[in-house]
Queue: 2 jobs
Job 1
Amino acid sequence: MKKYVLKRILQFLITMLIVSVLIFVMVRLSRTDPLAAIVGGKQTTPEILAQLKTKFGLDKPVVAQYFSWIGGFLHGDLGMSFKYQAPVSGLLTARLPVTLGLVFFASIIAMVVAIPLGVVAARHKDSPFDVISSVICLVLAGTPPFLMSLIFILFLARFFPSYPFTGSFETVPQYLLRMLAPSIALSFTMIALSFRMMRSNMIEQMQAQYTMTGKAKGLPPKVISWRHNFRNAIIPVLSVASIQFGSLIVGSVLVETVFSLSGLGTLLIDSIKASDYAVEQDIMMLLVALFLIISLVVDLLYALIDPRIRLK
Amino acid sequence: MGASKKKSYGRFFTVPVVISLSILIFLLLCIIFAPFITKTDPNALDLLNVLKGPSKEHLLGTDKTGRDIFTRILYGGRTSLLSALGVVMISVVIGIPTGLISGYYGGKVDMILMRICDVVVSFPALLLAFIFVAAFGRGLGNAVLALGIVYVPMLAKLTRSLMLVEKNKTYVEAAYSIGYSDRKIIFHEIFPNCLPTILVELTLDLGYAILDLASMSFLGLGVQPPTSDWGYMLEENRAFLTTSPLMAISPGIVIIVFVVCLNVFVDGVEMYSDPSRRRMPSMKKLKKRMELIEHA
Amino acid sequence: MRENIISIKGLKVGVASTSGYVYAVRNINLDVRKGEILGLVGESGCGKSMTAKSILRLHDEKRTEYQGKIIYENGKDILNMKEKELEQIRGSHIAMIFQDPMTTLNPLMKIGKQMMEMFRYHTSLSQEEAKAKCLKLLESVGVTPAEDRFENYPFQLSGGQLQRVSIAMELALDPELLIADEPTTALDVTMQAQILDLLRKLQKESGASILIITHNFGVVAEICDRVAVMYAGQIVETGESMDIFYHPRHPYTIDLIGSIPKAGLNGQKLTTIPGAPPQLNRPITGCPYAARCRYADEMCFTKAPDLQTLENGHTYLCSKADLTGEEAV
């Protein structure tokens, strides 16, 4: 177990390092001149340009720029946004709760809905319930999150016209209410994938030899399904959960846009459009870090649940 | 004993496969022959007829500048499908040779390549595409290129795993002992045997590419006006979602129908090639069959 | 004559599979008597395992069809029992161990917990009492140190140990009948003998009946009191095991015993039975063994064989009443 954890953490650090270099290099390769973006077409003199260069650290060599960026990133000092002329860290902390909230709530909703449904569908294979839910999930799996959000807005506007789509949120209940609809819209893809996986795993487990042993022991079918098959079936679902979290993070970019929430996603898209590269690289780094941390945690949890890894 | 061979209960043309395939063919024909189906110009403005509901001239109504939605969906479909094909082609051109060669020769290069692929595959495709587009600029060409590259590792890994299975088979040994060159063995002997599985994967990838490209265009990172694809149409008409929902959402419905049909079709193909996934024939049918045999 | 635990009368089992409707068990009559070890022998696919699982109705009910009766000790027909009633019998009155010990137990649950389930769902014993019993059981089958093994997961034990755990678990509630489906097939040879010895020892102590399913006549000779030979979904011969071993009457049994490798026959070819058993997804006319039988004549292919009974209870299903298998041994 210790070896596994160390290996996994090491892998995490290496990936972080590679990705940070990748992001840095990619953004630096950008064809647009950052200075032009800062100036934004205004008349300038060479002196002002030189001044700006120093201000944003663009006069230093590239390697030094990388280290000052990554060093700052680790200390929470994220540099200045060209577009907003403000520290990036302030921009990000204001928007973090939205994105984190979306991903968190969507995954909770998805798990709570998909896993029990998958088990029930598997236990009643080929029943009308199973067929209908499988078809629905097939359609959901082919629907990208932004489209789901559009359809969901249409639905809300028709049946819950009082739902607050816009406006600010100061209190916790306001925040939760505001997050509810986008989180549900975001969760659909994960529901579809988790449901299908859970269902097919359960069916597979229900045909396993140990299931017959349980039956021969005189255990009621419900006990066999929930006490024995369930744990065996859910482990593979958890093992791909990190990839699913990745698609949730990307999905949140889209869902934020549709629901006009100011989260990291909308900020990322705005800064890409404005070539605001300090913001670009920080958000991308943050999103990737978020993804890598979640998958690290998921993998460690996974090891904790599966004794075959834990006891090795 | 000859009769026993007929006793396979797997049929390729099951009901879902027939339905999905005919919808796909219908949509493809509509998109390919768009100029014959509608005489309207997809970009023709008609400021006297903005935001009109469905009518004889405008089957799905018009948008805020009076352009015909139905026509735009057909022409937008060309952009969407062609660019999705482009994504798949890029991944094929890079991914398949990489997978084949990496799997055939093995060794250190193979190990490094696969490590990189593992890392890339674990990332969500769109996130990497964002990074790429952030660096090289927005636009359909860059979006296609970005997604194409991001799709490479998945395909390379699949091809490699197929290669690993095939390369130990007898026919490869035979080809080797005859003195065929490695190139001939890889591309003429082994590759054709990997092809069926790869084609299934590519069809799935096409569906993902349509979805991912739509997402990028929707965010304004893909197609740039005046060209339009299904994703960008959704973005254009988003403001009128609640006032004229049919017009605003119909490109989305087409996306869903297309991708779901593609998935159902692939599912049917897989079920046909893997008997263990076939559904058990019903007891009633089997018993009837049994009775028929007994009476014969 | 001793009382029967289980009396199978005219059992037919049909199963829907991807290759069609299979009549794997065709008209079986078999009694398991109190306190005996009965062997059910036959080659793979002859329906012996299917028969065994039918006794506990373990097949997927949605795609299985039973005909006939399986009368339990109390006079009730297992095939007609309600699911709840059957759950009471499974495990506590009739228990079953399976072929591959590596897959028999839930890989994610501690061995102790899986054993405790027997008590949890069939008795009202407290946790501590149940645990004490489980530890004792583990010791009695030689899985030691019991305390440690109780906390282990299946993957931490070897195949032989796991089969012992299975046996301990299934005998936990002193069942009247233990069905052992190829209990030694997946184990290596030294382990096989140990498991058979253990089964015999435990049977002597508890007085339970054992129905042992095997394709190996050596197993029969070693521990069975009686034996039933199965071929193509039918029982073709039953009797005392020594009687059958030395005086087989049915041509299939004769060939089967003839094909056992014997010590001291260096350089001689092993005898094999040519051909393959008939497919079970279609009806069979005449004797199912006719196509492979060296004694078969025209009548064997058209007329179903009759059941012959000898004085000592030895029965066999063959139209030829005068065969003796002396030359085969």
Job 2
Amino acid sequence: MNLSGILVVAAPGRCEEVAEALAALPGIEVYQKDPASGKIVVVQEAPTIENEADGARALQKVPGVVSVSMVYHYFAEDPTLGASSVTVPTSH
Amino acid sequence: MTSLSRREFIKTSIAATTAATVGLPVTKAALAQAKAAEAGWKWDKGVCRFCGTGCGEQIATFNGKIVAIKGDDDAPVNRGLNCIKGYFNGRILYGEDRLTKPLMRMKDGKFDKNGDFAPVSWEQAFDEMERQFKRVYKEKGPAGVAMLTSGQSLIQEGYVAAKLMKAGFRSNNIDPNARLCMASAVVAFIQTFGIDEPANNYSDIEQADTMVLWGANMAEAHPILWSRVTDRKLSNKKDIKVINVTTYSNMCSSIADLEVIFKPNTDLAILNYINREIIERNAVNTDFVNKHCVFATGPYDIGYGMRPTDKFAFEAEKDTQKKQLVNKLDKYEAIAQRRPDMAGKDIEHKAAATAGAHWHITFDDYKKALEPYTLDFVAELAKGDPDESVADFKKKLQQLADACITKGNLMSFWTMGMNQHVRGVWVNELVYAMHLLQGKHGLPGNGAFSLTGQPSACGTAREVGTFAHRLPADLLVDNAKHREFTAKQWNLPANTLNPKIGTPIMVALRGLEDGSVNFVWTQTVNLFQSTPNSNHWLKAARKPENFLVVSDSYPTLSGKVADLILPTAMIFEKWGAYGNAERRTQVWRQQVEAPGEARSDVWIMLQFAKRFKLKEVWGEQPLAGLKEDGYPENKLPNVLEEAKKMGYTEDTTLYDALFATAANKKVAWPDPIAKGAKNSTVDFLGDGWFVEKALFEEYRQFTVGHQHDLAPFDKYYDDKVRGLCWPIVDGKETHWRFSEGHDPYVKAGEGFNFYGPLMKAIPSGNLDKVTDPTPKPLPGKAKIFYRPYAAFPEQPDSNYDLLLVTGRILEHWHTGTMTRRVPELHKAAPTSVLCMHPADAQKRGIKHNDVAMVESRRGKVKMVIDTKSSNKMPKGSVFAAFFDEAVQTNQLVLDAADPISAEPDFKKSAVKVTKI
């Protein structure tokens, strides 16, 4: 499991419309919005970083979206991380 | 807690942290919950690994692994935000194919050039590397070996590499891949201001009224800076203008007020048109120009940075290669260069060897030089879209001039479009001219700002000076005073340092082919992927007399043709520092341990240094072509006797002489600033000095009082500090250089002082030649250059009928060495595509998504044709990203370069595309 907190900025006057469109996307939950600045905070849940990045790109394509920025990324529970196969050195 | 409720718990916590970061209201309870979700995690500051912007990060570790990354809301660069590349800062450490053991070509238990890669111990790896290095060094001296490094190398790594090569091995054959992206910018800085690096900073975006992108796809190459530009444009009541001057339509045009599509290389003519207009419209800031500037020019016939011989050229490349010596002036060049009678006639590139020479001219001469660049002439020459009318294009050029000649605040931004350019130095200088003529540089909201592509192209390659001609802090190897100062800093006998400029990257690679260089060690760079005309170098690496060492964290194409691969620690697996494009130096602590036997580059170089005694390197060394006061001809002198007087012995190792000095060993590890962080470099070295701190402090002595002042090491680790912009004088950063009130090196009453000390005395002449060779000083002044329009050498013809442009797209960075490791980045661009105008595709019977053959004089590859990309090509031009390992775009690309900067022009090669 990956989770990321993303800032989406909507074009002036289009905050509500964009928030609605975002909420309909898979894995996306809209947590907060501010029509005055167009800022929308969403959290995206995705199985892997792959899906996480694809999802962020998809947000960019929603009509009325001006910019998409990742703010917070939690990836400790990603099953595809190679970390488990890494051996930690024990000697010099 | 069930996994579902834990997930909800983390989600709401992330939402709260995100909201707080972007300045939306959050309840205290929500923030408390966010804190609880991160119980046991350790957060520490870091820097993004993926581009030159230098975004600040907060990194969370738990149980020895990085578990989360967030944008640092205290970081002035990115204010808590990341672009998509940010997702991979933690992940990049954990790719399944990380190199964890040295790999060497082996047969029957021994190194064999034709053997297969097998894991070996570090001891075995160093033994063979030492044997091969000493074989070549004995045979060819310092000129036969080369180290090729990176704009991704840490500051300390660059410092160790430069000192080991220049002071230890007495070889100037060290060059970073920044040569491939920033060298033209560097030369233009030095020639114009006498000192390297930008005068402005990112906060100028929020103060600019007009922002012009010159051949820079900022939306994809620098997304965080682009978000600041869009924010400035869209959330401001003022009429903020954004102008995209480019050779093809790209994402930046989506918010641009004006898009100007020009023909490659005609940016030179467009800028001369604007500069002509500045004079025509009486918009010259006469007071500023008279007080702070002089006018200058240089020779025109300087070649294209190719070899002067066709001995090594493929048959098909010979016609292009010949142009290095002689080519025909086209009618536009002839007019632009005020020799209209030469149109269609051969000219000899007689000034190829003295391309960087320049001299004073008068303002009247400058004005005369600009005369040919009328609107009519430039519009006809520069129009880049065959489907646009000259009348429409003319209007756009006028609008561009109207926007650039302004009473408001003006910023120019550029990156590779102007640097990877056969006349890259010239075109950089013409942008400075546009700003200097109006007095709009080094001021809030006003400046010409050269951005960088790599995270420490500035901090390491340029500031430490890992180039073939440089020493730390803008000092030069071919300047006796600079060598003397450096020898004092480094405690070296006189004349240890080599005064002859070494091999830039392309010359080193050509050296592998022509036999002048036989040992190459690459670090954090995938050159056999990233350099143009790569088929030559791929073959050369496998010649039996050559030995190639590749230090990297992942398998690369360069690794495939290497003899020895050394596994390296990455970013947060070591202590380090980067310097970004606004002179901001940023640091981090080691967060986690590297996998397996991967080691930091610093450890690797220091271990290698232990294997050399002074008598092997500081005795007399052959150096063909050396003629320098105080040096024997064709030789570096024996300095061992002098060394003994200084307390060294013949058997002192380079490790002890250069690195583990008495002073450095006093800088002890552990150190309280570690706050519990590990230091694997120190642990594996095992002798207890704090390597990164000692070397940073040693390096810093070069900068203090020399207009490059860095702060003490510990200051950067202060919890409150998010990087500091040099020069830092009396504890204060400098955000705008050269202007009074902002820069401590400018005195009260001066207004401006372009105090850079280099190239500050030049001869005088007219537009054609030097008339008085006596160097005339120009203290405190900047140069406004006249540089003419010149065409690029390999124009499309009836056979190779399309122009290939290469560049970056957002999903990939560098050569894909890191970003391609991450499968999701790879998936976004699964195989290399060639962006093409639909009509060009149709003419060849090709449809969108068809696979086609792309062929140049140098090689051919299959690519997927894309006629629907956000990069919309004009007819006649095609675009490819330069990273793909499966499809080596660079084998198609011509290795012509700017003759002054030796930076290749990756963006202008003739190709043909055929249906298969």
